[in-house]
Amino acid sequence: MIPKLVIHNSISLDGSTTGFTANLDVHYGILGSYEPDAMIVGSNTAKTGTQFFCEKIPPEEESDFKKPDIQPDDTRAYWMIADSRGILEGLMHVFRRSEYSKDVIVLVSEKTPEAYLNYLKERDYDFIQAGAERVDVKQALEIANERYGFKLVVSDSGGILNSILLEQGLVEEISLILTPEIVGKNGTNLFRGIEKSGTQLELVRNEIVEKKYVHLVYRVLKK
């Protein structure tokens, strides 16, 4: 069994995920209202996102080599980061330190470099190995449900991972924060990786946030 999966993202009026400044308080405030067990993020999105957490990557400290102490009343979500190629080596402590993250679980594949797996083990990161060349997201979600009891996972990622999730029929709901900006031709479409058209949606909620943003929630209609 896989957890319920919701895609959540902030986009411009013309559907771009880049080229504008997202309101992180609004973005994570709405994401937090879902009270997810975990957030799933692609490695490229995570690497780009380090700029929001720190101007310069800080050096690792002794505390970065062990799991954080998690209190029973901690309502933050775990972060599941898909990184089969190990591009986040040397950066993982940035996410572990984030105020938005309870701790990090890394999704890897059978082809993930052994050196990267050792890097994760030395720092006591949990990881889920699923898939041959790339991460098999469906299998990883099934393992997360069995191992951690995750019931609700929110994708806070870019177009590549979100497209995979949609095309594999794993998404039940899409949550979008519409920002009143137009990016233009240099924009990055949220679902640019989808090859087949025809995904049908049903609008279930819309509301104005801070007199500037529009929060739209769609249910994905199963074919």
Automatic annotation (TrEMBL):
Q: What class of enzyme is it?
A: oxidoreductase
Positions in coiled-coil regions: none
Pathway membership, UniProt: Cofactor biosynthesis; riboflavin biosynthesis
BP-aspect Gene Ontology terms = riboflavin biosynthetic process
Q: Where is the Bacterial bifunctional deaminase-reductase C-terminal domain?
A: 34-209
What's a single GO MF annotation on this record?
A: 5-amino-6-(5-phosphoribosylamino)uracil reductase activity
Where does the source fall among the domains of life?
Answer: Archaea
Q: Which UniProt keywords apply?
A: NADP, Oxidoreductase
The cross-references to Gene3D superfamilies, in alphabetical order and at most eight, read: Dihydrofolate Reductase, subunit A
Q: Does the keyword Oxidoreductase apply?
A: yes
Quote the EC number: 1.1.1.193
- PANTHER family xref list: 2,5-DIAMINO-6-RIBOSYLAMINO-4(3H)-PYRIMIDINONE 5'-PHOSPHATE REDUCTASE, DIHYDROFOLATE REDUCTASE FAMILY PROTEIN (AFU_ORTHOLOGUE AFUA_8G06820)
Could you identify this protein by its name? 5-amino-6-(5-phosphoribosylamino)uracil reductase
Upper classification of the source organism reads: Archaea, Methanobacteriati, Methanobacteriota, Stenosarchaea group, Methanomicrobia
